[in-house]
Design goal:
By secondary structure, the protein is mostly helical. The chain contains three helices and two strands; from the N terminus they run ββααα.
């Protein structure tokens, strides 16, 4: 389930733009674990060796690492905000 948290607390104009949609703590942990798994898989030796010789794979690896980091960042943000409530 996804919970919405109003940053401003008000119902005035533009409050819809300031509402963050949070993952449940369970889903946030799962998203973070999936992001970590993606990062680890992107740097295991067979894949890392293949990226040394192929520029397309090298840049794809950069994209995968970015995506994994983004997933972990969103998960951490949601866990921190949920912990402060």
């Amino acid at each position: 389930m996804i919970a919405a948290l109003s940053v401003t607390g008000g119902r005035g104009r533009g409050s819809r733009l300031r509402t963050m949609t949070l993952l449940t703590p369970r889903n946030a942990v799962l998203l973070g674990a999936l992001g970590l798994l993606l990062e680890v898989l992107a740097i295991i030796p067979p894949i890392d060796d293949a990226t040394a010789t192929n520029p397309t794979l090298h840049y794809t690896q950069h994209g995968v690492l970015f995506l994994g980091g983004l997933m972990m960042g969103v998960a951490l943000r949601d866990l921190l905000v949920a912990g402060r409530r």
